[in-house]
Amino acid sequence: MIDLRSDTVTKPTAAMRQAMAEADVGDDVIDVDPTVDRLQSLTAEILGKEAAIFMPSGTMTNQVAVRIHCKPGDELLCEAGCHIFHYEQGAFAQLSGIVARTLDGDSGVLRPEQFIGQIRPENEHLVRTRLVCLENTHNRGAGRIQPYPDVEAICQWAHGHHLRCHLDGARLFNAVAASGTEAADWAQHFDTVSVCFSKGLGAPVGSALAGSAELIQEARRHRKLFGGGMRQAGIIAAGALHALQYHRDRLHEDHANAQIIAEAVRRGEGLTLRPDTVDTNIVIFEVDPALGTAGQFAAALKQHGVWMLGVGGALVRAVTHLDVSHRDAVAAASIIPQVASGLAQGTIELPPDEPTY
Ligand SMILES: Cc1ncc(COP(=O)(O)O)c(C=O)c1O
Question: I want to staple 131 with a disulfide (CB 3.0 to 4.6 A). Which of 76, 219, 237, 292 is the partner?
Answer without folding.
Answer: 76
